[in-house]
Amino acid sequence: MIEGVRAGIDLDRVRADFPILSRTVNGKPLVYLDNAATAQKPRSVLAALDAYYRDINANVHRGVHELSARATDAYEAARERVRRFLGARSTHEIVFTRNATEGINLVAYTFVKPNLRPGDEVLITAMEHHSNIVPWQIVCEGTGASLKVAPIDDRGELQLDEFERLLTPRTKIAAVTHMSNALGTIVPAGEIVRLAHAHGVPVLIDASQAAYHMRIDVQALDCDFLVATGHKLYGPTGIGVLYGKEARLDAMPPFMGGGDMIASVSFERSTWNVLPYKFEAGTPHIAGAIGLHAALDYIDGIGFDAIAAHERELLDHGTALLESVGGVRLIGTAPNKASILSFVMDGVHPHDIGTVVDREGVAIRTGHHCAQPVMERFGVPATARASLAMYNTREELDALGRALRRVREVFG
Ligand SMILES: Cc1ncc(COP(=O)(O)O)c(C=O)c1O
Questions:
Q1: What number does the ligand 1 atom closest to the CA of 177 have?
Q2: Among residues 365, 372, 317, which one has the least CA distance to residue 343?
Q3: Positive or negative torsion for Cα 216, 42, 94, 202
Q4: Which is catalytic among the residues 370, 372, 380, 402?
């Protein structure tokens, strides 16, 4: 495919790596444009999961027997792979979680909550996913601390001057998305960290969306914490990552108690394991970590330069295409955005859009995208959202365009 080759991606090969992409839905070839919700999995990830359960299934860190040693090696190799992927200094800084949500809750409960006093503040932005809003509300509740929200403009860009104005001596943490799942806006995370640190405020970056579109380097960002979620990185569900600077994690109490996170246990007192195990209570998602390892290998095999160039081309094509459909309004038009086409259509509820295009085999997301405050900001109850990944094609976007014209016909 000329388009793919031009962008440095061999699209035919990439698409062949994802078995689900060759299936049909409602009698039509699947056009999967719901990647911001979860991405599809390449064969290498499926094979890694299968091989783990087939050949080496055993618990980790617990047995001297051969399989346990091999499972432990594979699990720890996955941690090293994540370290390299994020550019962290040490594997002590890489905690496996269930997902990004758990990573944010971990930081909220163990880093922020114990230190919250009346009048303290937690700073987020108006474009956060619910998972970067609700944990902060929960930990603030009953402490007299409050949530502050940096506004976004009509294009969906963060108002950096307002963000800076909201950094005060009472700000205990700034928790900011690197890329909005509802708008596609890319937030200048490095600049956010610089501004916050200048005010002595630690920063958590939610890289759930950004991490599968662009290279993340936690040392260059200098963030204190960063979360990502495996299933959006072409990996399995149920596995996520929390990066934390070692000194920060070291000073924090455990999040959950149980096996593996302890050094010693007696009825009088228990002591905690070293990093990162202090934060990994109970049997972890061993297969998930191994699958994530394969997913990160896959992404790096394609390369972020090629992925970003291809997705940029698709985004431009999709934007022009949506603008050519009568009555469509794009929500989220920041100059620096990636891979998300959120839109509304005059006189048609987003759920009806989703239902009609699904009949054409096109999978998009409709609703508030776990970002109700964003919907409120733009005065809409919901949007329809097409979201792109490395394997999507212009032809698929054209199929979306045809399906939307069909929506126009049905609803007038
Ligand atoms: C920006 C953002 N943050 C956090 C999350 C939460 O991810 P998970 O549900 O995997 O924890 C999502 C998922 O949609 C997201 O898009």
A1: 1
A2: 365
A3: positive
A4: 370
Ligand 1 neighbours by CB, cut-off 6 Å: 99-101, 129, 131-132, 177, 181, 206, 208-209, 229, 370
pLDDT above 80 for 18: yes
Compute CA 376 distance to the chain's CA centroid, rounded to the nearest angstrom: 22
Q: Which residue has the tokens 């002595």?
A: 200
**What pTM does this model have?**
0.97
Identify the bridge partners of residue 124 per DSSP, sorted by sequence position: 149
Round to whole Å and give the CA distance between 55 and 346.
Answer: 55
Which of 314, 335, 100, 134 is closest to 211 using CA atoms? 100
The predicted pLDDT at position 177 comes to: 98
pLDDT value of residue 90: 98
Q: How far apart are CA 62 and CA 175, in angstroms?
A: 36
d(CA 315, CA 15): 18
In terms of Cα–Cα distance, which of 388, 289, 315, 358 is closest to 48? 289
Find the 168 Cα to ligand 1 centroid distance in Å.
Answer: 27
Q: What is the pLDDT of residues 87-97, one digit of tens each?
A: 999 999 999 99
Output the CA 34–ligand 1 centroid distance in Å: 13
Identify the band that residue 59 occupies on the pLDDT scale cut at 50, 70 and 90: very high
Q: How far apart are CA 238 and CA 341, in angstroms?
A: 26
The pLDDT of residue 294 is 98
> How far is ligand 1, taken at its centre, from the CA of residue 104, in Å?
10
Residue 370 designated active-site: yes
